Amino acid sequence: MGIQVHATGDGIAEIVIDFPPVNALPASGWHALAGALSAAGADPSVRAVVLAAEGRGFCAGVDIKEMQRTPGHTALIEANRGCFAAFAAVYDCPVPVIAAVHGFCLGGGVGLAGNADIVVAADDATFGLPEVDRGALGAATHLARLVPQHLMRAMVYTCRTVAAAQLHAFGSVLEVVPPDKLRAAARALAAEIAGKDPLVIRAAKQSLNGIDPVDVKRSYRYEQGFTFELNLDGVADRARQRFVDERGQ
């Protein structure tokens, strides 16, 4: 359980999220993921990273139950810091990060996939932001990298999800495969990248980040500010508690 790191010996590092039952990460999990990504990118023998997950889905976002059982705002603040660190670690990783997405990819999962260089998805994968229903905002920055502007807005307002096949049509998901073929497809793509000159690939990653039209870290931090406002207003706490009550303690 937790964040697992597997080195394949062929220039590929596989980082696996494993927080049963739904990969809703506690604050410490987000920080651990950020650390694993940073360490992989700092390793000169690593030429590509595959970010995958065990269990029913890729990632269900933050652990809301942890927030509700922790007095004060400590868990909320740490979750926000952890998400910011993990999303930034994907984006800033000196080598390409390939997200292998299966099942649900929600909230923070969209933050990870949206900041990845390439997304490969299982045909059962769905993507969405339930934040409005949870009294929060965030990761629209990253969803906007996966879907067109007006669809992004509709998804934020309604909390609807979209399927991997639709993202494939947009070009934001490179390949859609059966679930049992997902990890192999992601590793095959990583191997193709790892076969290139590593200095050129690292330079390519840096150059592509440099020409991005949106500063994803500043944009996401701006979104987080509204989550803090909603929390101070009390609406966020009420929404989170409804979520916990509906699913049991």
UniProtKB/TrEMBL annotation:
> Which Gene3D superfamilies did the record assign?
2-enoyl-CoA Hydratase, Chain A, domain 1
Give a yes or no for keyword Lipid metabolism in this entry.
yes
**Pfam families, per database record:** ECH_1 (PF00378)
Instruction: Report the superkingdom from the record.
Output: Bacteria
* Alphabetically ordered keywords of this record: Lipid metabolism, Lyase
Family designation: Belongs to the enoyl-CoA hydratase/isomerase family.
> Which PANTHER family does UniProt cross-reference here?
(7AS)-7A-METHYL-1,5-DIOXO-2,3,5,6,7,7A-HEXAHYDRO-1H-INDENE-CARBOXYL-COA HYDROLASE, ENOYL-COA HYDRATASE-RELATED
Q: What is this protein called?
A: Enoyl-CoA hydratase
Q: Which organism is it from?
A: Phytohabitans aurantiacus
Lineage of the native species? Bacteria, Bacillati, Actinomycetota, Actinomycetes, Micromonosporales
